[in-house]
Amino acid sequence: MKLFSTFGSVLLILFALGTKSGFAQQENQFRQWRIFIDNDFLNFRGAGTDRYYTNGLRADYFYTPKEKPRFLSTLLLDISETNNNVFGWGLAQFMFTPKNIAEPEIQFNDRPYAGALYAIHSLQSFDKAKTTKVTTELFLGVIGPLSFADESQIWLHDQIDYQIPQGWENQVPNDLILNYNITIEKQMLHPSKSILLVGIVETFSGTLYNAAGAGFMLRIGKFNNYFEGIQASEPTTKKNFQLYVSMKPIARIVASNALLQGGIIHQFSQDFSGYTLNKDQIERITFLYDVGISLEFPKLGIHLTQKIRTPEFKDSYTQEVGNLMLRYHF
């Protein structure tokens, strides 16, 4: 309950700042809320397991700034020559469990219990002429008991009268999250207004996750220009609604994952509390495949996505997780 209270308090503060121009908004500035929920029981086939990645919650407030970006924002990559940039502040919490949440003892060679809670500062920078978008994100937060993942899952399962997880005492220990992530998207093909193919390159660097990946995104249907950025959200000149399906396969090479191996403090201090996997148990190549459908109106967007992930560690399973994302422009 503590985490839900904390998470809710932060969201209320962000909402108040956004709606009352706490970020010094102008009337014609871009402002958007985005909330997404990941859960293994949201997958299309309804085959929830409470195994591995069991739940994720993220909320972001996106805006165009009135003033010149300050220090923290200058760390993010700006490729726009026309100030076509969307900044964001957000909060996220994620939780992971082994296969059997009824077992209180350590389940060796299985996924550790783990949680993460972090703040996000982001920038989506668009270059329409070069049909390129660069998204950078800076994460700052914690993993371990300080993430309140155990309290969150136990409270939720109690509310819905579902099996209470028993092994959170063995979770990955407390550590620091400081990560810098870059995603570069470049148009490859746009043969018609209804078909778009975008190439993707991504990197993750820091104490939480170190990896690099590449893939593509295919979008088919009725949609605005993906690389127009802010201008694509102007209802007076664009389509009244968008309806499209998309798929996004990505291949990644993984150097480290603190939610499996423990964080940098844990590894350098030889802290033996909790349970973690060693480097030889990590799968170094993983594949991700997202497929979904989106419906967007001038102010509201609804996105449903199925996420498939190949094993992240030895002798584990492929996982399917459902995602519900809501966007609101104001």
Would you spell out the secondary-structure blueprint of this structure?
Blueprint: H1 2-19, E1 31-39, E2 52-63, H2 71-74, E3 85-97, E4 114-127, E5 132-143, H3 149-159, E6 175-192, E7 195-206, E8 209-222, E9 242-257, H4 258-261, H5 264-269, E10 285-296, E11 300-309, E12 319-329
Antiparallel strand pairs: 1-2, 1-12, 2-3, 3-4, 4-5, 5-6, 6-7, 7-8, 8-9, 9-10, 10-11, 11-12
Could you tell me the strand content as a percent range?
over 45%
- Number of extended strands: 12
Query: Rough shape?
Result: globular
The radius of gyration computed from the alpha-carbon positions, rounded to a whole number of angstroms, is 20 Å
Spatial order of strands in the largest sheet: 1-2-3-4-5-6-7-8-9-10-11-12
> Biggest sheet, open or closed, and with what strands and sense?
12 strands, antiparallel, barrel
* CATH evolutionary superfamily: Outer membrane protein
Helix/strand/pairing category: mainly beta
Residue share in helix:
10-25%
Determine the N-to-C terminus distance: 30 Å
The total domain count is: 1
Walk me through what this model shows:
By secondary structure, the protein is mostly beta strands. 13% of the residues lie in helices and 46% in strands. It has a twelve-stranded antiparallel barrel. Strand 4 (114-127) and strand 5 (132-143) form a beta hairpin. The longest helix has 18 residues, at 2-19.
Structure at a glance:
This protein is mostly beta strands and 330 residues long. The chain contains five helices and twelve strands.
